[in-house]
Amino acid sequence: MQKAPLFRLTLFLLLASALFSPAAAETVDLTILHINDFHGNLLPKPGKEGKPATGGMARIAKMVAEEREKNPKGTILLSAGDMFQGTPISNLFRGRPVIETMNRMGFDAMTVGNHEFDWGMEAFQDLRKAASFPFLSANILDERGALLPGVKPYILIRKKGLKIAVIGITTPETHYATKPENLKGFRVAAVEKVLPGLIAKLRKEGAGPVVVLSHLGLDEDRELASKVEGIDLIVGGHSHTEVKTAVTVGATRIVQAGYYGQQLGVLAIAVDRESRRVVRCPEKRILRKVKAGPGDPVDAAVAAVIKTYDDQIREEFGRAVGETRVDLAKRPFESNLGNLVCDAMRWATGADVAVQNNGGIRTTLPRGTISLEQVFMLLPFDNNLMTMDLTGAQLVSILEQNARTDGMLQVSGLRVVYDLSAPEGSRVKELAVGGTPAEPSRTYRVTTNDFLAAGGDRFGVFREGRNAVIGDNVRDAFLEYLKKHSPVSPRTEGRIVVTP
Amino acid sequence: MSEDRITVYVNGRGVTLHRGMKVKHALIACDQALYDAAEAGDLAVRDASGFDIGLEGSLRDGTRIFTAKPGE
User: Fold this and answer.
1) Residue pairs spanning A and B at CB distance below 8 A
2) A contact test, residue of B56, B59, B63, B65 with most A CBs within 10 A
3) Which tens digits make up the pLDDT trace of A51-70?
4) Where in chain A is the domain with CATH 3.90.780.10?
């Protein structure tokens, strides 16, 4: 009877020693640093009401360096895409300042986001070639199934004896979320068709943990984790979500660090050396707010790169981008400035009609040279062109709403005659498109901006349009038009006639 | 969902948008005042899990978003 407790104790000690011996339970500490949807926000965002500034790449770089010091051999730095488009300092130099700062910070990889194509394939490839780290996307394929030139499906990062697999994934919505021509000849394949085979291959080759660097959006990441096995971690982007508590789906953790570099994702994980799976992952305190007040140190080298480009902006803004032979004025119903903007929009897309709201045109321009700064003041909003099918009846409905809102729309490609003494809803007396009377049931291709396309200023009919495609930034389209057509001399010419 | 449009829900109210549109478009479509307030930083926008999301964030068919006072 005395032997049984002793036997149990011995067995327990043996099992415990097996379970906790270094060989059986050796773990490797890794730190994953990540940002996403940075959109060119190199400069800090000023704080409101006396609060300190936030964000800015020089401050992020310093925070990254501080985190690296804590785990110098086990830290990786990732971007989940959409890094370049969105601010003057990045847009004016086609993303170059962002790439230069990322190179200096030692990014390990970046996944390709939909907005990486906003300036066309050539600009995308220029950025890729300028990067000292790989651009990843395993699911952008051409008709033969080949990847985008120069883009890798994954990278293996060797840290502390592990081969960490980082696989890039791009949203299949890219064709809807950026100008479709910019990705002509390529399709974005469904992730569940691409990933299982790739993950199995990488695991077989001894890689792990497996990190999917995703530009899909948080809901899609959840779906991915539930459908595809073998993913340890999804570092996400696209939905601009501040994932403050790691999302767990099965054995997969999902994180995302908001947007515009306002947060740095910091994930300290433990990986089992034997299974190469993540065995410990914090749930909370995984985002660090990027505070950029006067007492917050910055990385001097990255700050210097940003300053170089920031100084050039002033010079760039003074650059002549066109010329007008007449004063350009705006007013309700028709104006020569509104005509010019709408002509540029219609020229950019080749649509039958273009429509722009007066509220999106913010200043007037005197006769003479037009500078880049004046164009930014004229069209300050980062609106995109949206082109869609609308029927003649829907156009009439939009123009009736225009009469209710005191003529806030400017137009190109159509002529409308109003009788403002008529009851609401029957004030459009004549409508011609391309010089021919509009037919209520006929479909016309109409370009507007994304604000109106979403039903802004109560123009909800635009939301009923079909086959909508996104286009260039309205300001970029206007600049291109000025470049090709200057000097311009637009006039009011009876596009919108108001009686009595 | 038709191929080229999505329906999303803002504070429970369904709005139809062109596919590829973002959080800001959903707010504009629902009530432009919501967009103006969010843009000014007077309103936070959250997803169904309560995470803060940006105005340029992506949407998909069926997404539910909510507005609230920042910090609430």
Assistant:
1) 94
2) B56
3) 899 999 999 999 999 999 99
4) 319-499
- Which stretches of chain B are DSSP H helices? 23-30, 32-39
Question: Nearest-CA neighbor of A80 among A57, A45, A107?
Answer: A107
Contact check, Cβ <8 Å, A460/B29: yes
Q: How many CB atoms lie within 10 A of CB A195?
A: 24
Interchain contact A451–B (C-beta under 8 A): yes
- What the block records as the tokens of A85 is 């488009």
**What number does CATH give the domain B5-68?**
3.10.20.30
Both tokens assigned to A170: 């791009």
Domain A319-499: what homologous superfamily? 5'-Nucleotidase, C-terminal domain (3.90.780.10)
- C-alpha dist (Å) from residue A380 to A275, A384, A450, B32: 53, 12, 14, 19
Using DSSP's 3-state secondary structure scheme, residue A211 falls into: strand
Residues 118-157 of A with CB under 8 A from B: none
Cα separation, A84 vs A232, in Å, equals: 28
Where in chain A are all domains bearing CATH 3.60.21.10?
25-310
What pTM value is reported for the model? Answer: 0.92
| In contact, A57 and A101? CB cutoff 8 Å | yes
Determine whether the interchain pair B60/A173 forms a contact, defined as Cβ–Cβ distance below 8 Å: yes
ipTM over 0.95: yes
Answer for the pair A265, A244: CB distance below 8 angstroms, yes or no: no
pLDDT in tens, A175-226: 898 888 899 999 999 999 999 999 999 999 999 999 999 999 999 999 999 9
Q: How far apart are CA A409 and CA A406, in angstroms?
A: 9
Contact A243, B51 (CB under 8 A): yes
A285: buried, middle or exposed (CB in 10 Å: 19+, 13-18, 0-12)? exposed
Looking at the domain that runs over A25-310, which CATH code has it been given? 3.60.21.10
